[in-house]
Amino acid sequence: MQRNYLYSFLPLLLLILLVGSLSKPEPYHLSESSSIRSVSMIPVCGLAHVGGIPNTLLTQPVALRSDVGQFSAPTSTKNEKAQAYFEQGMGYLHGYALIEAARSFHEALRHDSTMVMAHVGLSRAYMEMDDNAAARKSAERAKALSNHASDREKGHIDLRFAQLKAVDSLDNQKLLNEYRSKINQTVKRFPQDVELWLIAGNAYERYASGRGQGTSTASIAIYERILQTQPNNPSAHHFLVHAYEGMADYGKAREHGEAYARLAPNLAHALHMYGHDLMKTGDVDEAIAQMKQTDAIERNLYKTERYESMYDWHHIHNISLLALCYQYQGRMREAEQLVKERFMTERPINTERTFYNKMGYPALLITLNRDAEAVPIAKELTTGKTPGERVIGHYLLGMTQLKKNQLDQARLSLKAAQNELKEAKKAAYDDWLNAWLDPHPKFLAALIALSNPAEREKGLADVRKFQASAREQSGPDPWAEALFQLEIIAQLAYQLKLTDFAEESAKVLAQHDPNYPGTHYALAHVAMLKGDAATAEREQKLARQGWSKADAMFLTQNFARR
Questions:
Q1: Which of 154, 163, 119 has the alpha carbon at shortest distance from 137?
Q2: Cα–chain-centroid distance for residue 280?
Q3: Is the C or the N end of the chain the one with fewer CB within 10 Å?
Q4: Which tens digit of pLDDT belongs to each residue from 443-459?
């Protein structure tokens, strides 16, 4: 079982508290110092933008909504609407709908301008928008109003500063340990606060910036224990989906994904999360249905609330995975429509990662053997504004040249991609390029070596490293992208008539996903190389059945007409 970011030892004090603390409700009391004031607009420290998103959007009024992941999270406010908006904001925050979370917290402040926990919520939302300066200012605003806060709420304020300090130095283990220690102390004081337990679960990820997407046995123990006393806590279910995906336990992840979607049917990310593991467990049709419903919720939101999808990071993520699901079924026209939309979408946040939006469309065109359309796009990317775009542009050109066995030209493209990667790493503020961008030139280099008889042994060794890495991918997009990467390797091995390696590669593809029609197609190719006509016919039939919804052009390209 693959485990990422594993921490095996949950601190004893935390575990003891967890076992005994959630069995009865906390007797929340209103703070004596709390008061109802006339409501006024609360400015966000005069900022025009937060994390690249216009402040006018983040402060835009919002209605109360149902079934978006809310759960009881008492505060000191005496205003019922402020409380309702705060809980709505927390549901959106835990569901990564950051714009709607910020709007809800601002709406809470319109009803109670002294509501400390709404500022705490804004601080958390802004941090997740990668704007720590704005997050700190909201935390300072909460601290300035701490005479209106209960002792428990003051504990939340202190945690904001501890986390932000640790996030500013993500590789500083001392600061991370100090943050975790402060969480333990706060939980010990207020063991009935479920939100503190959720924060604790997040904190036992690899980095202080954890928000429920990482994997650790400590986190799982916390979330599972919450569900023993609150079986309908949507956030605990959500975080467990991510955790079990990281453990490659997709059946367990699917169970929690179904629960999250059931408990928060109007929250786009809840339906999307369910789709993650429907795909991985073989129910691609239902995965597509969930992601299409996610897409409908989001597009309706943008239309009714009058803002562009470019400001919602989740929209690109959802249509990317939906496109991969369509590609899985050979529905290339539908996949192309979505990756082209992604290609056209600007990035207001983290513009250095523009390449993530740009690469899918030309890559799909190359897959469809429409190189004449892909090459001009790739060439344009080689002159892009960011180093990442230029890396991907040269990589894609190299892949088209490799298809034509133009190895010398492919090597030149590889060298250009490697040079641009060095520049990209100079400008990067952390090591994200190692995970996002670095593999592409290395993959091209391995395939070039595999294609050259003089370098084949090295190529085989490097390609096998990629196969092993692909098999370790557990996140939704990486898992699907790894599937198609493994398919490329199997196809190239067949084209080069490397019978033993083609068979080995088809088996690796089957280990990753035995249900994928392309797996059967690869197995059919291996049988052809070995002269096993009966097996080839059987596997081709299974591939055709799996691609029953595929486009006619896709089927024509992959199956010779009889």
A1: 119
A2: 15
A3: C
A4: 999 999 999 999 999 99
Q: Using alpha carbons only, what angle is made at residue 272 by residues 271 and 278, rounded to the nearest 5 degrees?
A: 90
Query: What is the average pLDDT across 197-202?
Result: 96
CA 511, distance to chain mean position in Å, is 23
- Output the six-digit token pair for 416: 């250009």
Report the percentage of the chain scoring pLDDT > 70: 90
Residues 250, 218 contacting (CB under 8 angstroms)? no
The Cα 292–Cα 274 span in angstroms is 12
Indicate whether 28 pLDDT > 90. no
Alpha helices of 354-475 — where are they, by DSSP H? 354-358, 360-367, 371-381, 387-403, 407-427, 432-436, 439-451, 456-471
In angstroms, the CA 524 to CA 538 distance is 8
Element spanning 202, H or E? helix 194-203
Q: Is the pLDDT of residue 493 over 80?
A: yes
| Spatial separation of the C-alpha atoms in residues 427 and 310, rounded to whole Å | 24
Query: In whole angstroms, what is the distance from residue 59 CA to residue 113 CA?
Result: 14
Structure tokens at 45: 């420290």
Question: Residue 22's pLDDT is what?
Answer: 54
Q: If we measure between CA atoms, which residue out of 509, 515, 514, 517 comes closest to residue 489?
A: 509
Residue pointed to by tokens 């989001």: 298
d(CA 294, CA 316): 12
Distance CA 390, CA 153 (A): 48
- With contact defined as beta carbons under 8 Å apart, do 91 and 69 qualify? yes
Cα→Cα distances 228→199, 200, 216, Å? 17, 17, 19
Token readout for 287 is 């995965």
Distance CA 199, CA 217 (A): 15
Helix (H, G, I), strand (E, B) or coil at 384: coil
pLDDT, position 423: 85
Query: Does residue 61 register a pLDDT over 60?
Result: yes
**Inter-helix orientation angle 456-471/499-512, to 10°:** 10
Cα–Cα distance, 499 to 487 (Å, whole number): 15
Residue 284 reports pLDDT greater than 90: yes
Quote the pTM value. Answer: 0.89
Q: Left, alpha or beta for 346 (phi > 0: left; psi -120 to 50: alpha)? A: beta
Cα separations in angstroms, 90 against 8, 68, 100, 104, 144: 29, 9, 10, 9, 22
Beta bridge partners of residue 49, listed in sequence order: 54
| Distance (Å) of CA 376 to CA 355, 384, 437 | 16, 13, 21
Helix (H) or strand (E) holding 191: none
Asked whether the beta carbons of 272 and 97 are under 8 A apart, the reply is no
Q: Is 342 helix (H, G, I), strand (E, B) or coil?
A: helix
| Residue type at position 281 | T
